[in-house]
Amino acid sequence: MILTPHSVLKEYFGYDTFRPIQEEIINYILSGNDALVLMPTGGGKSICYQIPALINEGICIVISPLIALMKDQVEGLKANGVSAAFLNSSNTRDEQNEIEKACFSGEMKILYIAPEKLMSGFLGFIKQLKVNLFAIDEAHCISFWGHDFRPEYKQLNILRENFPNVPLIALTATADKLTRKDIMNQLGLDETKLFISSFDRPNISLNIAAGREKLQQIGLFLNKHKSEPGIIYCLSRKSTEDLAMKLIKMGFKAKH
């Protein structure tokens, strides 16, 4: 059976159609190209590397900075029938051994790894694998201009140096023009194509109102959306607790 982006999307993720620019990115990566993807949180960035990883022979290595994010991604992939795992400081030695065996045998399709783990001498292990793609998640961590700079990310240019023929996709939800340029320079992606998804979220709106009668305004808004869940952001834990208690007294179901 020949795997296609659409067949993999349906079989493993249960979707019939792609979101805007996802298919274009996937086909670009499948053609052996590098890419920088700027897409809003919840826009479907992960599918842009997960589908090429499943179509091509070998394993995809995903560099991710957050243990919780890795765990969520791996659990989701496993639930969809994809062989995936993560390696970071939370693994026991026995767990790491089992994961390495699965990688060597060709069973593993997607391996998430922390940048600190990669830089602790793990590159030699990866060189023994048939890597079909490198994905750099939260790529703004590479740049000094990014809001969440990580020193280990600064060293990820070793991937291009050691794997010149393996496609690399860098993904982020937040990077201005200066940061995007720095990401490409740091990774050695001089001719990389930039994909920018629309950040327009028609289901989200922002209104600014005067502070007076704030509680009354919130109550009026909630009464217009009685059957809908929502999130109210406050500037501190105390103000969150105070607002929740006031809303409960007004008859709303609220928790903090």
Structure explained in plain terms:
The chain is built from ten helices and seven strands. It is an alpha/beta fold and 256 residues long. It has a seven-stranded parallel beta sheet, sandwiched between helices. α2 runs parallel beside α3. The longest helix has 13 residues. The radius of gyration is 22 Å and the shape is elongated. The termini are far apart.
Low-confidence stretches: none
Envelope shape: elongated
- How much of the sequence lies in strands comes to 5-15%
Order of helices and strands: HHEHEHEHEHEHEHEHH
Distance between the termini: 50 Å
Structural class: alpha/beta
Please give the count of helices: 10
Can you tag this structure with a few keywords?
alpha/beta, single chain, 42% helix, 7-stranded parallel beta sheet
